[in-house]
TrEMBL record:
Signal peptide coordinates: none
Species annotation: Fagus sylvatica (Beechnut)
PANTHER family (alphabetical): DISEASE RESISTANCE PROTEIN RGA3 (PTHR36766:SF38), PLANT BROAD-SPECTRUM MILDEW RESISTANCE PROTEIN RPW8 (PTHR36766)
Domain Disease resistance N-terminal span(s) in chain numbering: 11-96
Protein name, UniProt field: Rx N-terminal domain-containing protein
A biological process from GO: defense response
Amino acid sequence: MAEGMLLAVAQKIIEDLSSWTFQEVGSLWDVEAELDNIKNTLSTIQAVLQDAAEQQSHNHQVRDWLEKLKVAVYEADDLLSEFLTEALRRGGTSENLAKKVRGFFSSSNPLVFRYDMSRKIKAMRQKLNAIAEDRKKFHLKECHVEPHVSMDREETHSFVPNENVLGREDDKKAIIKLLLDPNVEENVSVVPIVGIGGLGKTTLAQYVYNDDIVKKHFELKMWVCVSDPFEVKAVIEKIIASATSNKPNDLHMDELQKQLRKEIDGKKYLLVLDDVWNQNYNKWDNLKSLLMGGAKGSRIIITTRAKLVAEITSPISIYTLNGLSIDQSWSLFEQIAFRKTTRDQQS
C-alpha cells in the first residue's frame, strides 16, 4: 500500500515536470536541465519499484533503500510545489506565464531567490541520482510503467443523496467556510479540492453543492464535468448549458463568450469544475478571464488529483482531502455490503 502511494507520487512528479508550465518556468529560470534530470531519474527508479516492494519483506537493505527513496520523493514533491508556487506568486496576475516569469527579475531580490531555488533543486537532483545509483546493488528487475493516458471518465453530475456521504461532514464545513468567507478581495475566487483518485473529491463537491446554506447564498449554481482534454470552448458550452438548461448549438467562440458573460455577469455564482487535469496556464487564464464578471463573493470549486493543476488557478486556498479513518472506512464498507445483500435478496 505504501509503495503504491510512493509510485503515485513519483508518477505525479513526472507528469508535473512534463507539463508546459514547469517546462516554461524551468527554461526561464535556467533550471530546465536539472528538472529534466529529476524526471528521468524518477522514471528510472519507478521501473524497479515493483520488484523492490516484493523483495523488502526478506531484504532489509532493500527496505532501507525504499525508505530513503520515499523520504526523497516526498521532499522533491514539496520542493517543486514550493518553487512553482513562489514563482507564480512573484509573477502577479499577468496574462502570459512567460511575461510573469520574466517579471520576476524586476521584483525584490530575484537573484537571491533564483540562486536559492537552483541550489535546492540541484541538491535534490544529486540526492535522487545517488538513490538511483544504489538500486544497482540489489539487481532489481525493471518493469515497464505505463505513462498516464487520458481516459474518458463517466460524466459526473451535481446530485448526491446525503445518506451516501460518510465521514465528510468536517470537510464539508471547511469548504463552505471558504466559500462564504467575506474577507476575500477578489470578486471571483477559486477553491480547489485536491486528492488522489478514489478519495471522494467529487462526492464532497456534490455534498457542498447541495447544502441548504450554499443554495441560499449563491444566486446561480453551475456544475461542469471537465475531465481530459481541457478545451476552453467545450468547457464554456457546458457552463452555459448548466446555467440555462439549454445546450448551445454550433456557436462560434465570440458568440459563446457573449452568452456566458450575459448569464453570469453581476450574479453571485458558484461554479464547480469537476475532474480537472489541465496544466496549461494559458488555457486556464483564457477561461478565467471570461468568468470574472460575477458579483463579489462568486466562487469556483475545482476538483483535481494534481496540486499543480490547483496552483496555476491562483487559488485563495487549496483544500487537500485526506483518506477516511479506519472506522469511517468500515462504515462505508458495511453500507456498500448491505446494499449488495439487499439487491441480491430482491433479485
